[in-house]
Known about the structure:
heterodimer, A: mainly alpha, 9 helices, B: mainly alpha, globular
Amino acid sequence: MLPVTTILFYIFSAILLGSATLVVTARNPVYATLYLVLAFFNAAALFILLGAEFLGLVLILVYVGAVMVLFLFVVMMLDINLARLKEGFLGYLPLGLAIAILGVLELVVVFWTSPLGHIPAPAAIPANADNTRALGVLLYTQYLYPFEIAAVILLVAIIAAIALTLRRRSGTKTQNIGAQMAVRAKDRVHLVDLREPKS
Amino acid sequence: MHDLQNTAWWAILWSLIKIIIVVVPLLLGVAYLTLAERKVIGYIQVRLGPNRVGFRGSLQPIADAIKLMFKEVIVPTNANRFLFLAAPVLAFVPALLVWAAIPFGPDVAISNMNGGLLYVLAIAGLGVYGIIVAGWASNSKYAFLGAMRAAAQLVAYEIAMGFALVGVLMLAQTLNLTKIVEAQAGGGFWSWYWLPLFPFFLVYFISGIAETNRAPFDVAEGESEIVAGFHVEYSGMAFALFFLAEYANMIFVSLLTTVLFLGGWYAPINTPLLTWIPGIVWLLLKTAFLLYVFLWIRATFPRYRYDQIMRLGWKVFIPVTIAWIVVIGVALETPLRAILR
């Protein structure tokens, strides 16, 4: 009788691998995106099985909740012509295969030579451990500089993305909210007495 | 080993019982919220609302449910059949899943998890997949426009909502929802987080209205512009699932606002007379009040224009929340800390 967590691990991993394969093979890009969502979900489930609930929940929050919504948004808007995408498939096949084999070989080498291949089982988690706090303390003490540098890089990316949208178009009509809020009734409505003046 | 398995089965059975104890009243609450909505808006507009089925319309939700169950589910030609039928489920399941972390009392929750706040934020954001997939799979222009609007709106308001929750996190120093409520104990009404976090309280509740696609932010439906938005093509039970999800989410947002900002199950004034009333009554009373505010807002305000929704989310709420996070951060490093904690 296997422990429940082991059974769950195999179920989640199987769904993860299956949906990851389907992301690549699905013909419809919207299906591919939804399979990717499923893959993220199962990865999050694996994190939670390991006791890393913060990582699991943040994976769902950031990737499933925000990034994939935008992906889906874009993929739905695109008119993807599969026939044109498949043009020249055979021509690119040797190059693609070579890169794939190289990638697999690299992974094999890494797993054989480094301790990554045989990670010891995680130490028993103390009851009521708060790994959010533990992660926070670690990030703001031991890894403060790498963490801040990552933040600055993200800030640069945000500013660059915003800078790309800054172009002035002439002839567009936009609201001036400040001016609208400052309007008073007497600026807009002028009552005129239309009765005949009494003579 | 035999004992262990027995306890494991018992744990599963006990979870199931707890889930039923939460979900059945929730669905009844959803049914009667629809009646309350029609009655409240009716009275606000000097009408009577439904008053034919049962005593003063009290059986109207049951009649509606039976009607929806016996209606045919029509799948439009050229719709993507699988996703078309999966979309209502995708909208409904997260609306039920969030309830796993909600505390109803000091020790009453389906799961008293450490990352409760993160969990509800993560799962509540998933409901939008139902809307987007419905819009795409319907193969209809109106449905598609509704889906696009829902996606953009979700991304805009989720950020403000997340920042508002950061404030709660800074004061309570925990992600555990039960402990967040317990951190608000003490001085009754004045020690709840709505006071030090007043901007977050407003931003969170308004973002909640936007996230549940309720008026005045219901542009994903927008009857007057895009017929009924993402659920134009749905009928019968498939439509009912969207409806159930929307109302369950309304109750959830009201309850979470109560838990985070209005002191959860604590009485507003610390006198023996009021603290004698069980906590669950206070929790439900506060939730009912916020639900009333939902309906009140719907009856009062006209629908926002789409670009104004985006402006409110990005240019008003996000700067306000960032500024207040700094204020709270500075306050926690000064003697004010003693008052805030």
